[in-house]
Write a structure and sequence with these properties.
The protein is mostly helical and about 190 residues long. It is built from 5 helices and 2 strands; from the N terminus they run H-H-H-H-H-E-E.
Length: about 190
């Protein structure tokens, strides 16, 4: 029974939206021309992204977020150390595996009696895979650095004051034929 009443009420509300759409009671007068403001913000965001693409962290400095570049460079240093560590171990196990499968009896790897040929191959593949994954992560951090600078510049003018609010109240409006129509009034407070 409730569903049967809900559907016609919803249809009535949606049909009234088209009828009363011409009556705009909410008018926002911007303090600045919108076209120039969005052009400046977009231009500033593009410049921040370009700076971060050229030198990681430069876009964050351009946006005056001085605490972000040290975190970014600490991440790059950690990833660089991980790449070097995994590459060093990969090269060690690669050479040891080559010596192990080499038919020459004069070449002896340092892992004789510790690992068999299969274990050397597994470790070689593990360190190669991890090294390659670290390169992918480094590329991802570089791209996220550019995205962060762009988004931060876009949102630098975003209003986060405590005076932003929205109020929704049910009201009765009248259609063109003077019949009452249930509606929902939204009131925005932007100051």
């Amino acid at each position: 029974m409730k569903v049967k009443l809900l559907i016609p009420s919803l249809l009535c509300f949606l049909s009234c939206y088209n009828i009363v759409a011409g009556q705009d009671s909410l008018k926002i007068k911007p303090d600045k021309p919108v076209a120039l403001d969005t052009f400046y913000t977009k231009h500033k965001a593009n410049r921040a992204a370009l700076y971060s693409a050229i030198l990681p962290g430069a876009g964050q400095i351009f946006n005056k977020k001085y605490w972000k570049p040290p975190i970014l460079y600490a991440g790059f240093i950690a990833i660089g150390y991980s790449i070097e560590f995994n590459n060093r171990n990969y090269q060690t196990f690669r050479i040891a595996y080559r010596y192990r499968i080499d038919p020459d009896s004069t070449t002896i790897d340092p892992y004789v009696g510790i690992y068999d040929a299969t274990a050397l191959q597994v470790r070689r593949d593990y360190y190669r895979r991890t090294r390659d994954l670290m390169w992918i992560i480094a590329s991802g951090v570089y791209i996220l650095n550019i995205i962060d600078a762009y988004v931060d510049a876009q949102l630098s003018d975003f209003d986060i004051s405590d005076n932003l609010s929205i109020n929704a109240q049910p009201v009765i409006q009248f259609a063109r034929d003077k019949s009452p129509v249930p509606s929902l009034a939204l009131t925005f407070n932007l100051k």
